[in-house]
């Protein structure tokens, strides 16, 4: 009998006003020195103050760390972990998008370990995470990465990406408050929203999918599909922001347990080689990967079409799977993300190097319902460059 393992963050608060739970949760740990890892722009516009000011009013000592960049390189992680070790913090709070949250995970866990961050990387590291580290609270300010409920911290290498992953990277508490996402600009809303959608879609077609992850993924798709366009067009729409926040959260829970696959595997080299935002990388590849693997998961793609707002009742699974690809492509276009690699100024000459790096993502590729080998990956990149969906020969 086959079975599934399900792992979730120990405690999560979700919904408008959830940030009010911060002080009670911090109080459970009575920290003396709190490190707040955040995006520099959030500190500049004062959003980070919504976290630090209540803490300081209660007498907690906080230090704000803003050396955070999108798609953080390994050295950024090394610097933060060294800073955390040197300054004797006893709690870490991550505030921001996926990069800030991933870095906060590294700070909290590796502060109590020895050696450089590079030693803990999944593909090339020689050390293992051995203890839980410092108490960690994660507070996302975007709706997309799901980092607040996953055990992965992603770092950019010279031409690709690698991760530090262990269940000890799960936060002690996740606080998901859609009110914190209202100020996110349309371009970031679009990219992170498609990222969340991709998490849910890939979790649903993953070879590791289960009834529990299916339920989470399909509801995430429903929420995102009905709200993403509105959130991009009108960031102050409370219902759209709430739907996106919950959709991202559910997608995170789903893909953490079922895994992502081909879209993410091929997206990593785009970020590594061309520094394209992770959400944009997923968005530009999503319809092309799904078209290529379509025959391996037609029935599930029919379900995805329904969750996207379509109606597969009077179609064959094959027809519905084609419609699903069309709808995914339409959503990407509607939120203003380029639909081809050329649209990101990626030259055709780069396709070979992208393929070489994509093949290395074996941990992620293993979850695809259609095995993707080097020739397949090259065809998908070519398809995404040309802007024409394709399938295996």
TrEMBL record:
Segments forming domain Alcohol dehydrogenase iron-type/glycerol dehydrogenase GldA: 13-178
Single GO MF annotation: alcohol dehydrogenase (NAD+) activity
Domain Fe-containing alcohol dehydrogenase-like C-terminal positions: 189-385
Pfam family name, one: ADH_Fe_C
Keywords: NAD, Oxidoreductase
Signal peptide extent: none
PANTHER family: ALCOHOL DEHYDROGENASE, ALCOHOL DEHYDROGENASE 4
Entry similarity comment: Belongs to the iron-containing alcohol dehydrogenase family.
Protein's name in the database: Alcohol dehydrogenase
């Amino acid at each position: 009998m086959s079975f599934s393992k399900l792992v979730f963050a120990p405690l999560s608060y979700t919904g408008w006003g959830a940030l009010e739970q911060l002080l009670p949760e911090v109080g459970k740990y009575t920290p003396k020195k709190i490190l707040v890892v955040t995006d520099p722009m959030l500190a500049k516009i004062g959003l980070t103050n919504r976290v630090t000011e209540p803490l300081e009013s209660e007498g907690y000592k906080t230090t704000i760390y803003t050396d955070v960049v999108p798609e953080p390189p390994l050295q950024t992680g090394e610097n933060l972990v060294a800073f955390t070790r040197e300054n004797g913090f006893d709690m870490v709070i991550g505030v921001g998008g996926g990069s800030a949250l991933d870095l906060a995970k590294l700070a909290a866990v590796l502060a109590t370990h020895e050696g450089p961050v590079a030693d803990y990387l999944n593909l090339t590291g020689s050390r293992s995470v051995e203890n839980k580290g410092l108490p960690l609270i994660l507070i996302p300010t975007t709706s997309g990465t799901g980092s607040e409920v996953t055990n992965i911290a992603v770092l950019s290498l010279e031409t690709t990406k690698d991760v530090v992953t262990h269940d000890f990277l799960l936060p002690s508490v996740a606080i998901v408050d859609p009110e914190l996402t209202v100020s996110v600009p349309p371009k970031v809303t679009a990219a992170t929203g498609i990222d969340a959608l991709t998490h849910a879609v890939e979790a649903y077609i993953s070879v590791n999918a289960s009834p529990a992850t299916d339920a989470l993924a399909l509801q995430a798709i429903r929420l995102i599909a009905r709200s993403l366009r509105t959130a991009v067009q009108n960031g102050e729409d409370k219902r759209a922001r709430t739907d996106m926040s919950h959709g991202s959260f559910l997608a995170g829970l789903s893909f953490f347990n079922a895994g992502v696959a081909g879209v993410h595997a091929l997206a990593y080299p785009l970020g590594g080689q061309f520094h394209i935002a992770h959400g944009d990388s997923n968005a530009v590849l999503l319809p092309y990967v799904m078209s290529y693997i379509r025959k391996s998961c037609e029935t599930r793609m029919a379900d995805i079409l329904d969750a996207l707002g379509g109606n597969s009742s009077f179609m064959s699974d094959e027809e519905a799977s084609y419609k699903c690809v069309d709808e995914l492509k339409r959503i990407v276009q509607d939120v203003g993300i380029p639909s081809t690699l050329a649209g990101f100024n990626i030259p055709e000459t780069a396709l070979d190097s992208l393929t070489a790096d994509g093949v290395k993502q074996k941990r992620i590729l293993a979850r695809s319902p259609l095995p993707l080998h080097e020739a397949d990956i090259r065809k998908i990149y070519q398809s995404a460059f040309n802007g024409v969906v394709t399938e295996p020969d």
